[in-house]
Design a protein that fits this description.
The chain is of the alpha+beta class. It folds into 2 domains: 3-294, no CATH class; 306-415, no CATH class. The protein has helices spanning 50-56, 86-98, 187-204, 238-252, 293-298, 306-315, 320-327, 332-338, 345-361, 371-382, 391-397, 404-410, 418-426, 431-442, 448-455; strands at 3-11, 32-36, 61-66, 102-103, 106-107, 109-113, 123-137, 140-151, 155-159, 163-167, 174-180, 214-221, 227-232, 259-264, 267-273, 280-282, 289-290. The strands form 3 sheets. Strands 1, 4, 6, 7, 8, 11, 12, 13, 14, 15 and 16 form an 11-stranded mixed beta sheet that branches. A 4-stranded mixed beta sheet has the order 2-3-10-9, with no helix packed on it. Strands 5-17 form a two-stranded antiparallel ribbon. Helix 13 crosses helix 15 (448-455).
């Protein structure tokens, strides 16, 4: 009997799960290298897991490159984990609600033993957050068996028979793991289910975006032992991958206890035995989390679809091009915050989607600009203390930590009052040339529409 389920792993936005480092996806300079060997230990059942023993038997040496910008002693396993990221927990609670899942009363972190070198500790911290959810598809409901919060692994650099090298910048980034019930009917249904869950994650605005931030694993059985297929990247290939695996299992069978296999194009290659319950044991360095009614109620936020966001943005005056871009951007939440500054929506959208990107290309450290600085700047613009052309000049100096008011004063960027503009106009007897001359010399201090209106007086 054919059975198939999906496991979707998606990086969440914000700081790492157990420290205050952040991962921006960029390759940073190497500050130090750690070298480790990892040994297998027993799980809470008192047994050594078959997958753990398989990897430990290779006796490999592992090297870890680290950058102090996005790694600390927690990733090096030289310091206990800090408090769990509340933002990551809140994100999983919001998504659990959207997936109709029941959140557990208490959450306990466990150590999932991993000795393939992808974690300096020899285990991955993971916590079951919610169970028994579902998602609607064209072929009926697909159950969501479990939703977990866990930490991402280190990024592989190079692998040989005796050694492997990793980077620590990705290690510890929070992940949500969504596991469906084995209710997927065929390859096309698997593709649809993955697309629906992926769209929900993107629409939430709570996840990281870009290549490598999401991955799908498949669980496939043709009536015997289960096979976990890791490394599914292209959703369009899901139907073909499932068909190939079903044919392979019917032809070759499955090793006793199940298998973990790696996808290479559409075929699979044996990696190790399938992990079992002996792989887990309690995490003693992280306190249990109580999911009280106040916390759950706070995170019952409705996730707005991209199309709903686009309609709202268009109604607020954002152009169609920017609305479509912003609706699927992680900056949508920032836009929602900044719109309360009373500045016009089009200017806010263009600034966060285009101007800040342009400044980043000029090596301006725009990531250091706080949302409060942006809010204050747009408030000044909304109250006509500054003109639109001067916004970019203020933005260039905000990474220094100065307030917008300080930058405006230092760079003499305040908007001229109507009386001051009238005085400027009197300096140009030829009214036809006055507009061009004034804009050429005072474009950072005057509003072109206002100048034209005063010239017509």
């Amino acid at each position: 009997m054919f059975k198939c389920g999906l496991e979707i792993h998606q990086r969440l936005a914000g700081r790492k799960l157990f420290c205050y480092c952040e991962f921006d996806g960029k390759q940073s300079k190497e500050d130090f290298v750690l070298t480790r060997k990892l040994a297998s230990v027993t799980g809470e059942t008192g047994e050594v897991d078959a997958a753990v023993a398989f990897e430990s038997a290779k006796q490999k040496t592992f090297h870890y490159s680290a950058c102090l910008k996005n790694s600390c002693l927690v990733e090096a396993d030289e310091e206990p984990p800090l408090a769990v990221s509340q933002d990551a927990l809140n994100a999983v609670l919001v998504l659990s609600h959207a997936l109709n899942a029941r959140v557990l009363d208490e959450v306990y972190f466990m150590r999932k033993l991993i000795t393939d070198g992808s974690n300096t500790t020899g285990f991955q911290r993971t916590a079951l957050i919610a169970v028994n959810g579902f998602i609607e598809t064209s072929k009926g409901k697909v159950g969501i068996q479990s939703i977990a919060l866990e930490e991402d692994s280190a990024g592989i650099i190079e692998k040989t028979e005796k050694e492997s090298s990793f980077r620590l910048d990705r290690l510890g980034v929070p992940l949500i793991e969504i596991a469906t019930a084995p209710e997927i009917r065929d390859g096309e249904h698997a593709k649809e289910t993955a697309e629906l869950i992926g769209k929900l994650l993107r629409d939430s605005g709570l996840v990281q975006r870009g290549l490598g931030t999401i991955r799908q694993d498949l669980n496939v059985s043709t009536g015997g032992e289960r096979v976990e297929l890791k490394g599914v990247q292209d959703l369009d290939l899901l139907p073909k991958i499932i068909d190939e695996e079903v044919s392979r299992q019917k032809k070759e069978g499955v090793k006793k206890g199940g298998e973990t296999r790696m996808i290479e194009e559409v075929k699979s290659k044996y990696m190790r035995p399938l992990p079992g319950s002996a792989r887990m044991y309690p995490e003693t360095d992280v306190l249990p989390l109580v999911m009280n009614s106040e916390l759950l109620e706070k995170n019952k936020t409705k996730i707005v679809s991209s199309q709903e966001k686009i309609s709202l943005l268009l109604a607020q005056g954002v152009s169609k091009q920017l609305a479509e871009k912003l609706a699927s951007s992680k900056e949508y939440a920032l836009f929602e915050y900044l719109i309360d500054s009373k500045a016009d929506a089009q200017t806010i959208a263009a600034t966060i989607l285009e101007t800040l990107v342009s400044l980043r290309r000029e090596k301006i450290e725009v990531e250091k600009i706080s949302s409060q600085q942006l809010f204050d700047l747009f408030s000044l613009y909304a109250t006509k203390k500054i003109v639109k052309t001067a916004l970019i000049e203020v933005l260039k100096d905000l990474p220094s930590g100065k307030t917008p008011e300080e930058v405006i004063k230092e760079k003499n960027l305040r908007k001229f009052l109507p009386g001051e503009v009238r005085k400027l106009i009197t300096l140009y007897p030829d009214k036809k040339k006055a507009f061009g001359e004034i804009m050429r010399t005072h474009r950072l201090n005057v509003d072109p529409v206002e100048v034209q209106e005063l010239l017509r007086e």
